[in-house]
Amino acid sequence: MNIREYTERMEQENLMPWACKSADAHRVTKEPLDDLRTSFQRDRDRIIHSKAFRALKHKTQVYLCPGDHYRTRLTHSMEVSQISRTIGRALRLNEDMIEAAALGHDLGHTPFGHAGEKAINKYTGHFTHNEQSIRVVTYYGRQGRGLNLTEEVKDAILCHTGNQLPKTLEGAIVRRCDRISYLCSDFDDGIRVGLVGPDKLPGIVAMRLGTEPSQILDILVHNIVESSAGKNEIILDPYYDEAVEEFREFMFAYVYECPVLEKEHQKAEHVVLSLLDMFEKRPHLLPEETQKNFSRFGKLMSIVDYVAGLTDLSAVNLFNYHFVPTVTD
């Protein structure tokens, strides 16, 4: 018995009956099993070593060019992974699958966060970062072969947001933790940047969840574990769920759609829209690798893949190079 087989046996013995088992995972393209790692562990490793994952460290979470101590898409993904794994371990579900899905859920996010996503959606008529994440892991990396992730992890990535719900409890945890993580962390960053403060929280949020980001997170994590223990579903008590919805509405009003950030988001949209339009009219300006994808994906989709994969800084640098005149003394 090798190490992978031993791990798979431990999963069968120790995880809940409804947990995702590594031995049952399947990929679209079959490949030999690894002696050391389970299928979900390999998914996690492929995500961590991917170019798209590295790019997340320079992609906006909420605040454009915020400084060293604010969240990026990378730190957000790591926080979602940590919170999700805590819940998964407590509920005896598959931590490796949870970790892979959590780390990979935002691989398709654009430069400038949701502002960039909104711009590409305007330009193409349909674009969502969760669907783009699936494109990234399916077609990019490993010399164009894609990451060939398991279907279970891809489902959790796709369904971490939107109307379609995950097929697994592990995916349901990632979906739930993505929301509570970004609300708490964006509130924390909002306090630091001076947009919000505990005194502005709605009464229902302060009373039921608390006023400190870490306190809110702790209460929600404990309630999910307590409510879901021994059950084949992931539950948050309606008493707290109602407060979370109020918290989300508060964050949209005071942070995500506040006038200060909205002005910067409009600038970001302009950058992304300008690049999309320029590359469609002048495709020869694209990297040769992207131009080669025209025959595979079509010109527009290849351009979208390229622009969506840019970091904030690379998008701004491209915009400045092509649209801002060089001024010399």
Kindly describe this structure.
The chain is mostly helical. The chain is built from 17 helices and no strands. It has helices spanning 3-14, 39-48, 51-55, 73-90, 95-104, 114-124, 129-139, 151-158, 169-193, 203-208, 213-228, 238-256, 259-281, 288-292, 294-297, 299-308, 312-323.
Order of helices and strands: HHHHHHHHHHHHHHHHH
Care to count the β-strands? 0
Helix vs. strand class? mainly alpha
Q: How would you state the average pLDDT, rounded?
A: 95
Helicity, in percent?
55-70%
Number of helices: 17
Give the percentage of residues in beta strands. Answer: under 5%
Low-confidence stretches: none
Shape estimate: flat
Q: Please outline the major beta sheet.
A: none
Radius of gyration, in Å, reads 21 Å
Separation of the first and last Cα atoms: 72 Å
Give the helix/strand layout.
Elements: H1 3-14, H2 39-48, H3 51-55, H4 73-90, H5 95-104, H6 114-124, H7 129-139, H8 151-158, H9 169-193, H10 203-208, H11 213-228, H12 238-256, H13 259-281, H14 288-292, H15 294-297, H16 299-308, H17 312-323
Helix pairs in contact: 2-5, 4-5, 4-9, 4-11, 5-8, 5-9, 6-13, 8-9, 9-11, 9-12, 13-16, 13-17
